[in-house]
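Quick one: structure tokens for this chain, please?
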Amino acid sequence: MCIEGEPGIGKTALVAAVVDAALSTHPAIEVVRAIGVESEFSLAHAGLVDLLSPMLGRLDALPGGQRRALASALGRSESSAGADRFLVALATLALISVHAEDHPLLLVVDDLQWMDPETRAALQFSARRLRHDAVAVLLTRRRLPGTESDDDLAGIDQLALSGLRPADAGRLLAGAVADTVLGPLVARTGGNPLALLELTRSLNSEQRRGSAPLPAPLPVGVRLSGAFARTIAELSPAARRAAILTAASFDAEAGPLIRALDATGTDAAAALAEAESAGILTVDEHGVQFRHPLLRNAAWLTATTADRRAAHEALAAVYRHRPGSRLRHLAEAGTGPDDALGADLLTLAAAERSRSGYAAASVIAERASSLLSRPGPGVDALADAVEDAALSGHVGRVRLLVERILAEPADVSRQARARGLLCAGTLEENTGSVRRAAHLLTQAAEMGTGAVRVRALFELMQAQYRLGSAQGMGAAADAIRSCADTRDPEQAMLVAHSAAAALAFAGRWDAAAEPARRALELLEQTPGLQDDPRYLLTAGLAASWAGTLALAYGDAPRRLRVARSQGAIGVLPMALSLLAGAAGLFGRHEDAFAYAGEAVELGTELGYVADVSIAQELLAWELAARDRPEQAHEALGAARRLQQRAEVSAAAVHIDIVESFCALCAGDLPRVIAILEHRIEVDGGRQPRGDYPLSVAPDLAEAYLGLGRGPEALDIAARHAELHRDSTDPDIRAETHRLAGMTADNLIDAEAEFQAAHRAHAAGIDPFSAARTRLAHGQRLRRAGERRAAREQLRTAADAFRLMGLDLWVGRAESELAATGSTVRRGPQRGAALTSQETRVALFVARGMTNREIAAALFLSPRTVEHHVTSVLRKQGLRSRVELAAAVTS
């Protein structure tokens, strides 16, 4: 839970009460605390160091990649290898979960808003996934009155604190003011407890009695800051110097602070004692800290510019053996250009970058840019800051920094501009408007040279794909071919892949095969590209365009395992969506259900928009086929909302096909007809495959027949046959014969068409379509009175649908079977009541993986996996993992 509220509202006091209650109720619980400090905001993983220190004895229990990433992030490893920020988050989740195996754990994080971005991301990621562990997470976050809470805590319970009522304020002030004054005091302060206390202390006796008016109303933050500023102003120069040095410090460690005070000739012990006695500082085993965050603000705001510089210089002098801290203080103390210091800061930024401290690296690179005297290097440093901010996922910061780059003279910053615009465009493509992304990426391509230009064009092509522009994709592919350095295998691969993508999207599948094969060869044969997670999706698409869809689906698990092990979550949503679609084509609908659900979960975690909309469509299809219409409706609604946000609604025609299928599952046949007739008017009904015009005919004909509109069903079947009777695709030929069988005048002709359809399906790849043909054949035989023959087809259909886990279609086949007079022998309902996440876990159990291995692969805690395994066994009526594995693989 996150407790939110304005400064002084009582967040910390409430947390203290919760901790006391927890310890009195559960003496074995371990409480681990961390406090966000504003001055440490740019210190990557500083909060994690505090929070995870008591747990590091269990670090060796983590999977190797996670262990190395976390050790590097926490400064416990000399390795210079970087790690994806999400791998650090995964390791944080795993370490907390492992540590909580011995006893319950309460994690308390105060002032989350001042935690460094890396720590905050890891905490939020973990908190959402510790639902089934013996772990409670209690966060506090400052929120000013009248401001909306942002959505970065989605999935975490939130409690917003409000002010005290007059009766409660009376108990707080304990007779310090007359009862008649309580109401006006609460009105002036909004019931803020700290404001009530501070304002009451500042009142004279007449004001406390109510015989004199109260001070003029001020916003609580201003009032508190003013009160604190007055308190600091009353300190002696030595104690005030101690407060300013504490405000300038990047951590709470007492030693450097005392040495800095001693260096100025100040009696450190006396100064700190006075500040502590005045209620400004607290000095204990945790170091030197301010009693309240607003006191830090007040100390810093009341200091002169010279005082602030002097504080940073004094601290820099005592950090000679800590180059990072020394450089940060020197940078803050600087007053003008300093090329040497700027260069040192860029080196420090590179070090932060190497341990995934991208947010910190961005801040340091930005400061370095202001110290470099020459405009070119300064703008290049800003471009570094943009790229680091993009890697840290800080969208707002990327936009602000790009605006600064664009304000620089164009003649010294074209490549830096291109780098900044490329980052902004890529982030926008993932998390915002694809249309705006295309504009930014076009600018990046126009300004950039070399690999930057190629990368910008490649991302532009992706944006054009999402916008449904075959012309835009073709233009981007041509531009990539004209500017890429094909001596570089990576750029050569992008040339080939771009050409294949443009051809395939334009419906020229045969022509796309050759460049797609070339792209695959380069991906597989070039060291460094084989398992590069950035090209997980690229490899899958290239394989499908090369005419080897089975290879694409078959090779996907290896690349997917590598991406998971590297914690490369950012590339997974679209890749998982592709795999879900491919799994559905092969009739592996449990895989499809698992992949689509995971794509939604991870994409939502990342704040993706367009990619998540595709995953929601696929999830809706699977939910509808599993007889979960309400959930399917919710997924469809989510997909449409995301498409509107991404501004791709006009191009997102596949959602109409999914919606019509959901309506078909729900029995809403008029809706099916309305959607599919519209699609025929718009594009000839050629979705979802560009080379398959009138692909909507099977569902449309079924809806016509269900409403007794036989002539229209016959017409659409004839039009489909005219287009596809000689198709080389066996599944398309099978659908042609199925339609003919469904609309034939007599049983003899129908029987011949259905038998031809079964033969065609035997050579195809789509078991779901084949099962639908069996169902339609059985229905036709039953209506003709051929009950025995109908039973054979209907049992085959029911068994096939059951094997795919598609309960609604199982029910339809069994209902038809019961109508023949046959007793329905219901098979095991595998996965009938499982969620997508439970299905995922079941599939991994079937592969023989342990709970820890599954947790690492699915970015969950082992306890959550254990909970899901137990749930799956209970829902399926199974007794062991062995039985579950056998049921899944049968």
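The chain is about 65% helix and 5% strand.
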